[in-house]
Amino acid sequence: MKNNGVLIVLSAPSGCGKGTILSTVLEQNDNLFYSISATTRAPREGEEDGKHYHFVSKDEFMQLIDRDEVLEYTTYCDNYYGTPRKAVEEQLAKGRDVILEIEVDGAMQIKNSYPNAVFVFILPPSIAELKRRLGKRGTESEEVIEGRLKEAVNEIAMAYKYDYIIVNDELEKAINTLNCVIGGEKQTVSRMINKIDEVLDNA
Amino acid sequence: MKNNGVLIVLSAPSGCGKGTILSTVLEQNDNLFYSISATTRAPREGEEDGKHYHFVSKDEFMQLIDRDEVLEYTTYCDNYYGTPRKAVEEQLAKGRDVILEIEVDGAMQIKNSYPNAVFVFILPPSIAELKRRLGKRGTESEEVIEGRLKEAVNEIAMAYKYDYIIVNDELEKAINTLNCVIGGEKQTVSRMINKIDEVLDNA
Hints:
The first copy, chain A, has helices at residues 18-28, 58-66, 85-93, 104-113, 127-136, 142-156, 171-185, 189-201, and strands at residues 7-11, 32-34, 38-39, 54-55, 70-76, 79-84, 97-101, 118-123, 164-167. Chain A is an alpha/beta fold.
């Protein structure tokens, strides 16, 4: 029996710095594979198929669902978003760790099918600080920001169902903590049984 | 409600580098408190009371047991060894993490009374390598080394009951991994509930 990689599910409200944390952790970990979501929405400017998303038609997405080829999916603004199963399972079987960046509903779907996955929630230091960060972008109206904050509160209420909580008060610290969480998880006894067996078998 | 520290229980067969790993991790973590064992054995040359051990009489040790003032205890070569409860609980209540370095039987006693403690086992890369390391010291007879190896195999057979397994193949890596395990554990949701509550209560 060989060791599979670890499946990490990362969620965070908008404005929590998830993108920066994720891209840095990916740069620092050669063994970590980022799972690209499939979506039926149209590509935005600068977005590449197979890099930012797998852009598919609605018919294609329906087929993915019918064939049980998505680990989870959700709809948002009439578009479908989901995690293709094949790439994730192939990488895990190779012993690579896989990270999914998905919202809370999708994460809970994964929890049902992959109880061994590791669920990580990135928390803002406070809602006041999140409001400040969202406002700083200067691109959204007060109304949009208030909507985002309400959504954030709903998402944070689901954080209790995650395995690990990382507060993004300092970016570098949050990055190190996520690295530690992944590193620590790889040492859990359920993932190290083969190594104990190996030492005892050769005693 | 405030957050208590994490209780870490560290075990390893003799020759696995536990002492070096532990002293380095203690130097690197100001918040980590090393719990000093009590023992009825006589101090060896260079050992200081209250630094290496709390040296107590057999009567005093019996009183500690009677008053439920040890978290665990064991006997070895007619001497008692145990973990005084008071210092551990005081430090945990202050939010400091506490590390105990104890053998497998004592660790299992702690597991019954402190199910939230974190159990870490340091594994040698192989028994052959452990034999090489024990032989390298050049101070023990072949017979003593064989006895140690048998004991190591018995201890490693208990590693399945620990939470985390760290292989000491490279010292620096093992030290970093132990730091990560402690760091990661502090982010587990059960230890972060207060922070989620705090963010939501102030929303």
